[in-house]
Amino acid sequence: MIGRLDGVLATRSQIVTELLTEGSRWDLRALDRDQRQVMLDGRDDPAVQEPDPTPAPEDIPLMPALGHDGRLGYQELAQRTGMSESTARRRTSRLLRTGVLVPRCEIAHSRSNYPVFVTYRMNVPSAALARVGSALSGVSAVRMCASISSAHNLVVNGWVRSVPDSRRLEEYLVERFPEITMVDRSLTLANFKRMGWILDDEGRAVRPVPIDLWRAPATV
């Protein structure tokens, strides 16, 4: 737990009431239109969304295994979890189909064109929150947008090209969405961990610390 680490004096938690968009949906805009179409043409037909996106107890061993390496083949996944290969395939397919598992391809921020992380905390009138939050999620620089239960009710994380661009993005958001009252903004100067992976100074993955919400937290 973060609060048990030496040097940590206090922690603060905020409950997400709705996650409107997050990093797995963010578009790096590295492919042109023709390249995008090739990927769409080769995609399988989407399966029908199942009504209950909840992992069964027998599915839980798949989570840390795939968190360690999401590219595992079914045979190796079966070996790591003690399942048969057909069972691992069936359960993984269900978890992907229901959205319990979401594939996510990360990039070292130092190697991208968007090395600066900015976070805005804002208030939006309750009647406009769903509409504004949904529209914010479609802004190209916005990587994460969530409504939260706090003194402010919306938090937005963006990746931009430079520190001055963080101000330009704020100006754009406030001008486009006059319902927004900007409460706070901050820049992330260093990022040492993301989605269960320890990062080096360049933002490259060094080693995994799989996210496992179903077991007691390991001592750091």
From TrEMBL:
SUPFAM superfamilies: Winged helix' DNA-binding domain
Domain of life: Bacteria
Keyword set, alphabetical order: DNA-binding, Transcription, Transcription regulation
One Pfam family of this chain: HTH_AsnC-type
Region Disordered, annotated ranges: 41-60
Domain HTH asnC-type: 62-95
Protein name: Lrp/AsnC family transcriptional regulator
